[in-house]
Amino acid sequence: MAPKRLTCTTNLKPLIDNYYREVLEAPQNGVKTVWVTASIPLEVLRGMRLLPFWPESYAALAASRKFGPDLIDAAEGYGYSSDLCAYAKITFGSLHSGKGPLGALPRPDIVIAANNQCMTVQSWWREMARFHDVPCFIIDNPRVDGDPTPEQQTYVIDQLKEMIDFIELSVGSKLDEDHYQEVIAHSNAFQVLYGRILDARKASPIPYTGGDLFTHLFPAVTLGGTPEAVSHYRLMLEEVEERIARREGPVPEEKYRLLWDNIPMWYRLGFFDYLADRGALFATDTYTDAWRHDNFLIDPKDPFPAYADRLLTVYTNRGVAWRTRRIVELVDEYKIDGLLIHSNHSCKYNSLGQVDINEAVRERIGVPALLFDADQADGRFFNEEQTRSRVEAFLEMLDQRKIKAT
Amino acid sequence: MSTTISETLAAFRQVATDPMASVRRWKDEHPGAKAIGFFSGYIPEEVIIAAGALPVRMILPPDPGPIAVADQYAQTFTCSYVRGCLDQAIAGHYDALDGVVFPKTCETLTFMREVWHRHVPRQWVGFLQAAAVTNTAAAHKFSRVQLDLFIADLEAFTGQPVSDERLAAAILACNAVRGLLREVNQSRRADPPPLGGADALAIALAAQVLAKDEASDKLRALREALGDVAPGRPDGRARIMLSGSNVDNLGLLEAIEAQNARIVADDLSTTTRHYWDDVATDLAPREALVARYLGRIPDSSRHPTDRRIDHVLALARDYAVQGAIFITRKYCETHLYEYPYVRDRLAAIGVPTLFLETEHHFTSLGQIMTRVGAFVEVLV
Description:
The complex is a heterodimer of chains A (406) and B (380).
Chain A: H1 12-25, E1 33-36, H2 42-47, E2 51-53, H3 55-64, H4 68-78, H5 86-97, E3 110-114, H6 120-132, E4 136-139, H7 150-171, H8 177-199, H9 210-215, H10 218-222, H11 227-245, E5 256-261, H12 270-277, E6 280-285, H13 304-312, H14 320-333, E7 338-344, H15 348-351, H16 354-365, E8 369-374, H17 384-405
Parallel strand pairs in A: 1-2, 1-3, 3-4, 5-6, 5-7, 7-8
Chain B: H1 3-17, H2 19-29, E1 35-38, H3 45-50, E2 54-57, H4 80-90, E3 99-103, H5 107-119, E4 124-128, H6 137-158, H7 164-186, H8 197-206, H9 212-227, E5 238-244, H10 250-257, E6 261-267, H11 272-275, H12 285-295, H13 306-318, E7 323-329, H14 333-348, E8 353-358, H15 365-379
Parallel strand pairs in B: 1-2, 1-3, 3-4, 5-6, 5-7, 7-8
Helix pairs in contact in B: 1-2, 1-8, 1-9, 4-5, 6-12, 7-9, 8-10
């Protein structure tokens, strides 16, 4: 039986359609476009009246709409290795073939990446810049073991200022201060709402599925700083809080509260419905947290420390020891029964260290984990039948643990 | 080939194929001194030398066999070289090393620092995370901070303060070796070249294992002997260049050259990219090291990489290259991303490229030889 979707899900399609229409029409509308990675402060970009476009988000969309295999074939046909990130392969395939869910993508004016989420983006953005023959700026992020050091923060802030100079020089855009302040206000407002939506999963039953949250990530990734993101998450939070008040979840019975680690398989979000159908819901995950910054809202008078913190403290920029501690905290905070760990062929930064993390978590708090192989956007690396068998055995084991505990 | 050349090459090959024996010998000659492994040319050997230790390039044994245990700790889609080294370290192969230093140059190396620390606990683990971006003021400032932190960490481990004087001396010693490597490498412009590709690789690798004075002595002897070699007659074997990541296996290059080819040039992190640029001696030593770190021919892990592309094209032209083999370890994503662009730029100057990807142990050598043979047939 399909889980009960949030009704505000219907609000997403017009948001997505409008956004991508803006992207496709940008050249004829005289709007400058910048291709960016997820952590680039889009408040600055919107404040400079640029339209940001996220190749990763586009690749996830392409994968979910089943364009992945053809675009990956096109990329591999051009000479890109099958072992590269599937998001990158999908984008390269789209560039070289002119095909994809949006058709041919318009040429950007500049491209900017931050390597906090992975170092792959450095190479990927460089090659996209070469393809389009446009300037490329990279924000380099040192690895953070504990808290960011003052030198690390200074380095990132220095680069953010260099980025603004780069944009001014490359495309002539300047910060429109009044508009920038509005963008920052919207961004902070959406962050507060988003944080409450994620926290709502502490309730039992969890009010929505993991698949729902991944679907509703779109505004957080692409529309932060706009009034549309604020209204969407306000709508979503209202509905979520109503469900909590009614003690209503997306499925009749919540049997297992799980933690999800890594990016989801975008071509197979139905896998989360399969899990939900078995009463397995995700109370928390290590992925959607990347867009959560309600613990460090932007100071409109001095925004750079918040931007630097967001870049430096993202999950993927942390080492094994920190991630272990964080997962132990999440298990306690969200009352987790087990961990479902996606060993993602496309993403080393999310996946490396998972074995050590699982062992360390089990040693410390005894919570079991299931690690399975797949890929975020290349379905060739996901054997769903085999994974389902392992999941069934894992859920049975969780049942046994609950019986023993009582 | 003269006796001096063949003896010197044999000595270099011995070091390149069994570096740990060379390290043990050095440690016997320097009781109490430490040997420290490094995975990348972005770890400045000068600093390790100034700290009283021997810098040793992490080289896999010629026939490491399949991974025994490392796949339990690092997924199989991670760099096969680093995973192979971890496997060998757990088995005790690198026990002669007192520590290893990881750079923040690629995802696998960045992560493997913690994995190594957990699973090879007897070795000290250092980390130098200088900037990945090489052309900004912020990168320069940050890289200097990181170098200072790394040096302080290393000083604490070896117990030897790293003075500017010691650094300056180490810089001169390393520059001397680099200069000799460049001079020896020049001999490969000849047709036929007096050195084979595997020999050239052995020389470059051995120079990253031996103490610099010993490396310099051997390189000088080789340079003098090469100067006496009379030019040979071209034999029609294809002139090939290699471009890619960190090749360290002599057998692989011999297998390539057995296909009617001569490897006359290489753009690898273990060879020319490692020794092409000197450290300036007209700057304060730490500043000079930062300047070299940021200004040297970049690996694909840095940004921008235009100077690397220029280097590839210059080698192709200067060494009269007929074809290029792009060669990388499996899952070396920084180089894999750049491959199509390198291929296209070489094609634009009339140099076709063959793509080869290898695991850390070469189970598919027969396949490699077949593909190289077919490639070479088209060239000659």
